[in-house]
Amino acid sequence: MNRLRRLFRIAWVFCRYRLDTFLPLEELPAPLKLFFLLAPWHLFPKPKVSRGDRLRLALEELGPVFVKFGQILSTRRDLMPDDMAAALKNLQDRVPPFPSDQARSIIEQSLGAPVSELFAEFSSDPMASASVAQVHAATLLNGQKVVVKVVRPGIERVIHQDLALMYLMAGLLEQYWSEGKRLRPVDVVADYDATIHDELDLQREAANASQLRRNFENSPLIYIPFIDWDYTTQSVMVMERIQGIPIADVPALRAAGVNMKVLAEKGVEIFFTQVFRDSFFHADMHPGNIFVDASNPEDPKYIAIDFGIVGTLAPDDQSYLARNLLAFFRRDYRQVAELHIRSGWVPPETRVNEFEAAIRTVCEPIFERPLKDISFGHFLLRLFQTARRFNMEVQPQLVLLQKTLLNVEGLGRQLYPELDLWSTAQPFLEKWMRQRIGPTGLYKSLQSHLPAWLEQAPEMPQLVHDALLRLRSTGTTEHQNRKALALMKEQNKRSERRWRRGFVAAALAATAVASTQAETQQLAANMPAWGWALLAVAAALMLRGGR
């Protein structure tokens, strides 16, 4: 019965805002086309607002789950028309709060004690109310000022109902809309499914906050509040209460005398540090989640909250992305095309020359403008749209990264319109690449891979023996067994050679590094010539690792 009422409510809102005009009616089968043409919503006049505002108002009326979905859609400019994405960006995460007695009940049930015994003070009026949770101010018994985040009661049941309907609609679009297979609406809903369920688990958010705090401990760039794990469960999270100026309150920042240029450049440095140094980045950096510590106006510091959504990149993605960006800075479009193919982002049969020409067509008009007038985030968006013409599949990790970069760049330009994100990013990327492929990077790579080789080497004979037993049990012919045995023996010999080369390479690299007493960051400047020669030999041995 509840599902039926919810379906009726969604249908009513659908009719009221004439969302039927978004459907590709001409591409639907005849029975569905007839249904939509005779449907009752034609009795409703079309609201005199843009299509983007109609969609935004409908999502707001449908409640927190749809509001959150609209916010995520607003970041997917690769899927949404610009006017609709801009309208959805205006969705506010301020939804009506749920009663404080329900919040108290959830806290007491989760933490196993009355609120009066858990906190010296607890504010019944929520500080903020969002899609899946709301926040109350409190004071611990030891006097520490904290905030208590509580998941909305019954939100999981509503999410399941609404997701089922979203999957149904996305499936119909993917089946009957000509653009459906390319835009993959079912995958978009699946991404949202994973995101919103992650946000329902406050222990997961707390773990993300702890990791980010550890990554930026004592950093002059950003402060991450601490989590009180004694008061944190899946439904309740207690976090240090912070004091700062909201990042969107530019007049207040200027009144406090904040150096806006330094603040904007620090935001860029934080982003690239998270992505390339840590491969763990805050992926929900909209203005409501960022504050500024202006106690030292000439050296301001960011404060971040709300860590339900984080992103990571695999080492290969990190490397390919950095090389792509540096190739763009140098206008080396051939390398950009080759990197896309080598990374597997576009099919291997893609013709490099055609792909290179398409990338040049996108990039050259951009580079003719002053760098400060170029949007880095929109540039990546254009690139991914071009790559999709060559059958580039949606890369979820890159979409999340692009969304975060758009947020960071938007904030930076709002704070300091002259911000040149390109020139701020280039030195950071070049330094990161030098560290990755220079002596320090080689030494760290040897350190990380050698233990695995040493662990696997003693097991190789047993692995060969087990493989031969499996071959015998499958009933293969004697000739096939002999061929398999010869192959296994050859692989065993190669493994032994690879292990010996790895051991020698590690010893040579360690000797080279030991030749200087400098810190690892200064190896390149202090290493003698014979140390470089040892590193070169070690690198050559590593490159032969597969033979």
Automatic annotation (TrEMBL):
One of its GO terms (cellular component) is plasma membrane. Keywords: ATP-binding, Cell inner membrane, Cell membrane, Kinase, Membrane, Nucleotide-binding, Transferase, Transmembrane, Transmembrane helix, Ubiquinone biosynthesis. Residues 91-340 form the ABC1 atypical kinase-like domain. It comes from the Bacteria. ATP binds at M127, A128, S129, A130, S131, V132, A133, Q134, V135, K149. Its EC number is 2.7.-.-. Belongs to the ABC1 family. UbiB subfamily. Belongs to the protein kinase superfamily. ADCK protein kinase family. This is Probable protein kinase UbiB.
